[in-house]
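Workshop exercise sheet. Pairs work together: one partner reads the sequence aloud, the other fills in the structure field after running the prediction. Swap roles for the next sheet.
Pair: D.N. / O.F.
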Amino acid sequence: MNRFQYRGGSDSVKAAAVSVQGYRPEMEDKHTIAFDVHETHKNVMIFGVYDGHGGHSASDFLQHHIVPAIRALENPFDEDQIKRALLELDQKFLGTNCPEPGSTACFAIAKRCEGSNNVHFKIVNVGDSRAMVVRPDGSWEALSFDHKPHTEIEAARIQNAHGFVRNQRVDGNLAVSRAFGDAQYKSRTGSPEEHKVIAVPDFKDYVARPGETILICCDGVFECASWRRVAEFLQTRVYGFEPATPRVASGLLSRGDDMPEGEEEDNEDEQTEDRERPGAPADAMDRALSLDPAEVAWDLIKASIDTGSRDNHTAIVVIVGDGSDYLNHYPAEEWIPGPYHKDAGNPTFQRAYVADLEMNGYSLEEQMDKIIQFEQANGLPTSIPTSTQPAAAASFDQAIIRHMLELAHQQ
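Structure field:
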């Protein structure tokens, strides 16, 4: 699969975003990695993921407008100012020619704490994208809360707005109760905080120490795994803990069915594990500070897809520590091709592959040499194998159809 990697660093963090279209026919995720975004408040950073649904226009909009909106605030950490700015952005999008698509937003506004190497993260969340921290001692904590229609507060608001919740969805259709866009769930009158679907954020402040890892990602990463299972994967990948389960040892996300004897799968409501995990490697912090966050994000995404997720995937990994020379060793932007020719006989696959490239500013013609080099290095076909065209078409189309059926079944 194609993957797009974006990196950045400062004297307090190094961060990377990785995006993969997965088995969806269109990429609807967008992201932000931005440094020094505020003229008055120096060294302010923003890391965010925007998970679109019903198209990518809402997530596109957020990618282009979140940073300017935060930059315009007198105090970029003031929650009232942030809330007003986001509600204004939502109204602005609803006034466009295509307000029906929607998007979640989970982003962090971050700044190094004065007099220390710690970093203050203010997590801002609308929807069900997620943020969490994993620490060198093995403890971890969720930094966001999913806005789901069936929860008590969300369901009450939906019903007060003359909507209903069926199959844990707004009006039996939408799986999130807070989002930007989604005009069909928002009245033209009344408070924007009282619609069936709202863009009102929740906030959480967290001060991270050097060596800690912040993850911000779309819900696709959690499609086949709980908070705890993602934390266990990062404990192993970032800090060198022994794998918690055989599946993690194989580079997959554990789904709970391979738990050690005597243990039970965690409840999704349990969103923290403050206890140190036994067996913390002595070099856990040094190991984390030496890593490329882009490779960590890619390994997590690959594990999620290999475990069974068919969603778009975007993950941002931020490792707290001096990242001022990060871009001296790695490119700021990078496209790494996935196989093309072995499935290119399938028009559905070909359209998706080309669309993914073009959305990120590339063209198939310009990148063909790089694609062929990748295929040659991995022993893959460098031309369309006629004899395998039907099988290729069936494989890709069945993956798309299977995902659509799963969505229909959820509704």
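Discussion prompt: Residues 163 and 263 are 40 Å apart (CA to CA). What would you look at next?
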